[in-house]
């Protein structure tokens, strides 16, 4: 697979209806909120988890598309495979905690991890644990997503209709609660460095095929992530700025300013995507920039 040769920056829009897009375990699983502005937050880690889950679903056991940070994965076992699959032995017997001093062998171990795990090629990984497979800086970074307007999380009381044990059959049904955001439209920014993908010594090898899969994941991942907790979540916009060069042709900040999301009406709180307008300025883009609207 040929590594990407262009830099990309992108704006990603998604919304939630009567759901919790990213609960905070340190706050009783309440939706994350910026306390100063009241705007909702979704972490980069949450978004990357959705991408990983979609890739695992779409690719299954396809060689080269395994997920390193998978649910219940034992990372040291994956790291050790990078040694054993290539027949590389540690310099001290059974001590895999240090990469080989031979630079070619050390690079070979890390490259094996990149070749076999999609999320390492995309996001990088720290693999220098008890079974050391190196450290990789990934070409893709995603910011926290922030809602366009303040959100007001609601705590909804619920009842349980069943009991667990026979001895509890005569007891009153227990009460519980769940948090929801009635509506929120969120915006995140992403950055893809071609240099961190195609560098002959340190690049992860993130390829054109990987890139197409990333765009597909961002477009479709919420369709395969339904749950009672998350309500209805939908990808609403994916605006990509493709640079002609691998280093880039314009500052990302200036490109992001070309995507304007505004309220269509100020009457009442927003309750649907139709309450917003999304405008992308395609006029006179910087030299070497191509604007793509994938959603």
Tell the overall outline: flat
Helix tally equals 7
List the domain count as a whole number: 1
The total beta strand count reads 14
Rg (CA only): 23 Å
Low-confidence stretches are none
Helix content: 10-25%
N- and C-termini, Cα separation:
26 Å
* H-E order: EEEEHHHHEEEEEEHHEHEEE
User: Which structural class do you get from the secondary structure elements?
Assistant: alpha+beta
* Percent of residues in beta strands: 25-35%
How would a textbook summarize the main sheet?
8 strands, antiparallel
Q: How would you state the average pLDDT, rounded? A: 93
SSE topology sketch:
Elements: E1 8-19, E2 23-24, E3 30-31, E4 39-42, H1 44-59, H2 75-84, H3 103-116, H4 118-123, E5 124-128, E6 132-137, E7 140-142, E8 145-150, E9 154-159, E10 175-192, H5 195-198, H6 208-220, E11 232-243, H7 252-256, E12 259-263, E13 276-280, E14 289-293
Antiparallel strand pairs: 1-10, 1-11, 2-3, 4-8, 5-6, 7-10, 8-10, 9-10, 11-14, 12-13
């Amino acid at each position: 697979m040929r590594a990407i040769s262009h830099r990309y920056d992108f704006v990603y829009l998604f919304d939630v209806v009567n759901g919790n897009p990213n609960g905070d375990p340190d706050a009783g699983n309440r939706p994350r909120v910026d306390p100063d502005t009241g705007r909702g937050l979704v972490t980069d880690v949450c978004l990357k988890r959705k991408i990983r889950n979609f890739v695992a679903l779409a690719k299954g056991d396809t060689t080269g598309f395994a997920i390193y940070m998978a649910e219940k994965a034992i990372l040291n076992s994956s790291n050790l495979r990078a040694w054993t699959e290539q027949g590389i032995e540690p310099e001290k017997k059974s001590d895999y905690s240090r990469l080989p001093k031979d630079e070619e062998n050390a690079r070979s171990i890390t490259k094996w991890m990149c070749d076999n795990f999609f999320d390492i090629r995309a996001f990088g990984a720290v693999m220098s644990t008890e079974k050391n497979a190196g450290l990789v800086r990934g070409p893709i970074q995603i910011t926290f997503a922030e809602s366009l307007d303040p959100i007001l999380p609601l705590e909804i009381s619920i009842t349980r209709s069943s009991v667990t044990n026979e001895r509890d059959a005569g007891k009153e049904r227990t009460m519980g609660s769940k948090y929801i955001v009635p509506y929120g439209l969120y915006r995140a920014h992403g950055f893809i460095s071609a240099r961190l993908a195609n560098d002959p010594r340190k690049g992860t090898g993130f390829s054109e095929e990987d890139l197409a899969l990333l765009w597909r994941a961002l477009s479709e991942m919420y369709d395969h992530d339904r749950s009672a907790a998350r309500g209805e979540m939908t990808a609403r916009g994916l605006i990509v700025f493709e640079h002609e060069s691998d280093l880039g042709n314009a500052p990302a900040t200036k490109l992001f300013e070309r995507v304007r999301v505004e309220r269509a009406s100020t009457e009442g709180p927003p309750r649907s995507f139709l309450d917003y307008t999304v405008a992308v300025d395609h006029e006179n883009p910087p030299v070497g920039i191509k604007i793509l609207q994938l959603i």
